[in-house]
């Protein structure tokens, strides 16, 4: 698997996290790892019936993180 995927995070997501601390570090660290492990999928998937896009859902440190792989442009969006 290629490891040069970029991980993009919506700024609105960052404002929902604690400003400092172990939980924030755990969430940010796990999402940074997505550039190399995006192919492993989340804890479960949901599908948008309008666009037919599958969204991965991961439960991390008490937060539900939704993300998807945009393979044509080599990025993972949160």
What's the short story on this structure?
The chain is of the alpha+beta class and 78 residues long.
Structure description:
It is a single chain. By secondary structure, the protein is α+β, with helices and mostly antiparallel strands. The protein has one domain. It has three helices and five strands. It has helices spanning 11-14, 22-32, 34-37; strands spanning 6-8, 44-47, 54-60, 63-70, 75-77. A five-stranded mixed β-sheet has the order 1-5-4-3-2. A hairpin with a 4-residue loop joins strand 4 (63-70) and strand 5 (75-77). The radius of gyration is 13 Å and the shape is globular. The chain starts with 5 loop residues before the first strand and ends with a strand. The mean pLDDT is 86.
Tally of strands = 5
Fraction of residues in helix: 10-25%
What class, by secondary structure content? Answer: alpha+beta
Choose one word for the global shape. Answer: globular
Tell me, rounded to a whole number, the average pLDDT: 86
Task: Note the gap between the termini.
Answer: 20 Å
Major pleated sheet = 5 strands, mixed
Q: Output the strand order for the largest sheet.
A: 1-5-4-3-2
Low-confidence stretches: none
What is the percentage of strand-forming residues? Answer: 25-35%
Question: What distinguishing features does this structure have?
Answer:
3 helices; 78 residues; alpha+beta; single chain
Helix and strand layout, with pairings?
Layout: E1 6-8, H1 11-14, H2 22-32, H3 34-37, E2 44-47, E3 54-60, E4 63-70, E5 75-77
Parallel strand pairs: 1-5
Antiparallel strand pairs: 2-3, 3-4, 4-5
């Amino acid at each position: 698997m290629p490891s040069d995927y970029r991980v993009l995070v919506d700024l609105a997501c960052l404002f929902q996290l604690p400003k400092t601390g172990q939980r924030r570090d755990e969430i940010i660290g796990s999402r940074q790892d997505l550039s190399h492990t995006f192919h492993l999928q989340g804890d479960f998937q949901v599908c948008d019936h309008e666009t037919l896009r599958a969204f991965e859902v991961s439960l991390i440190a008490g937060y539900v993180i939704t993300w998807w792989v945009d393979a044509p442009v080599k990025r993972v969006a949160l």
